[in-house]
Write a structure and sequence with these properties.
heterodimer, A: two-stranded antiparallel sheet, two-stranded antiparallel sheet, 5 helices, 31% helix, B: Rossmann fold, six-stranded mixed β-sheet, four-stranded antiparallel β-sheet
Amino acid sequence: MFTAVILFTVLGSLLGLGLGWAAQKFRVETDPVVDRIDALLPQTQCGQCDYPGCRPYAEAIASGEAPINQCPPGGEAGVRALADLLGLEPLPLNPDNGQEQPRRVAVIDESACIGCTLCIQACPVDAILGAAKRMHTVIEAECTGCDLCLPPCPVDCIAMVPRQSPWVWPQPGQNARLAASANVRTAQAGGG
Amino acid sequence: MLRDAMDQAKLAGATLHNFHGGLQLRHNKRISCELPIERAAPAERFYVPLLQQSGQEAQPIVAAGQHVLKGEAIGCVEHLGSGYLHAPTSGTVSAIGTHPISHPSGFDGRCVVIEPDGLNQWTELHPVDNWQQADPDVLRQAIRSAGIVGLGGAVFPTAHKVDEASRRGIHTLILNGAECEPYISCDEMLMREQPASIILGARILQRAVGARRTVIAIEDQMGAVHQALQHALRESAAAEIDIVKVTTIYPEGGEKQLIQVLTGLEVPSGGRPTDLGLLCQNVATATAVARAVTEGKPLVERIVTVTGSGVRRPRNLLTPIGTPISVLVEQSGGYADDAARLVLGGPMMGYALASDDNPVIKAANCILVLSSDEIRPPQPEMPCIRCGECARVCPAVLQPQQLQWTVRHGLWDETVSAGLADCIECGCCDFVCPSHIPLVEWFRHGKSELRRLEAERLAADSARQRFEAREARLDRLKQDRRRRMEEKKRALGDGQEKQKRIADAIERARSRRQENP
């Protein structure tokens, strides 16, 4: 009996040490729930949710600190996706955070730009290119349409324009101009 | 396992197999095969759309007012290295403006508009000398710069396909002459009239990709074609080329279906024929390759079938890209009195056009004009009764009834796992559906919606990366600043020494002020 006690004590402590070592060695740095929430957020980095970017908001949701309805760019669909992921009831978008709107892109009126670099510093995704006292321009493909470059501009030369969305084959019955498929009667089944 | 499959694929065409589903359709090809191929009448103005295939628009590399020669590059496509777009005739670029283009959206698109000078003068051509000895790289480069795309309808850049095939190594080239869609006869007429150029193209392609043999697949209903090809084959004395007749069951001319018929093997979902050591090209593409290599001529024209009972004299016309469709209809005897619908492509996979001002694009294999009694009257859509007819005829072995449900409800994950990407949009399911559900239209919608979502996801990923990189950079700058401040503070020392240094500095500043007031 004494041997058994010793055996199990030794075994237990060895396994415990092993587990402790593994917990240190293979520790997952971030909370995977945060990653999964972050993956559902639109990455506009606009801060309309009252957090300084999508990831901080994801962290706040994960810790239960923020509700899921504070992301206007994600819209109702985004709220539903978050609700599905977290097993919560979908909420209507909080109007205090802003309205859902179509995706937009910033355009700098290059003749009015004075090259102050303030918008460059404000852009959360480094999508504005330029140097001091040189004209600035927006890298259209990288602009998330977050509006953060608008307030700092001293000459008000930045406009938000709707982003041209790619053409999507319409749902049947929605394309009034064309009946997309040919619908031929004579191509009937039966020999040649 | 994969090795076995490769070995089996090497026997392509030795025995014929079946694919799942498919339909026996009324052929309707003979009406357009009665007249020989003729050159299309010169158009008054050519509209070359910069968007020739789904995906990326070409960048124009000419300016309005510039004079171009036939075959001169006028646009550059970066997408998948598909090379260039060329002027279909010599003349002046009058504008780069919007014009209705042949696209299912019915939208206008940017076109290079060319006013022909009537001389139809070729630019300087650079054929490959002695292609039999030429380096395969040189041949592939010639294909790339000729702007050749798959002329069967998918318009996938040939250079990209050929490069991949040569990189991965293939043993058999399949030339697809099994033009399975009713009414379309451009490949059939090409094989009948220019069999030698197809054989030549096959041999060049074979050299360009390092294939050991070629199988030319034709439909068993194409009588004259077989003789013509046999004759050309005997003359060229190419021993490594076989002609195989396959049974006419729509859509046996689909790439994956044809491979299954010839080898009994399925191209894996998401895979390519190169996985089986095969490369599949349309016969018209082979002709374009032959022309590009031996004459140096880029792809500026293609054969277009103008047919249907809505035109008076159905026929095939060799048409420069950018020719307005109205020119072709005119040359085919004009519209019949009961012409009712203009379709680009065949009756199963084509789409209706809003106007005959639309120009011919590289993908345009057929202009189908339907009379009113050829059009199926619109039937109200009924609920799916789960009869399973669509699954029975689906050549991709999908469950269309299930897929339409997931697409309709936006269940995108389920749609992807149900295999929407494998749908070839052949229209068989649509055709047999007793509830008249427009299945293929749903699938086309689903595919383009999935593409859009994927693009959005990529954009979000990029924004996330850029945001994180910026945060990291700002943090680093902050740390740097703090460290510098601390170093300065440390350099100042402490106690009396610090007091003295500060006093000294103030003294220095004061004396400087007194020197230069």
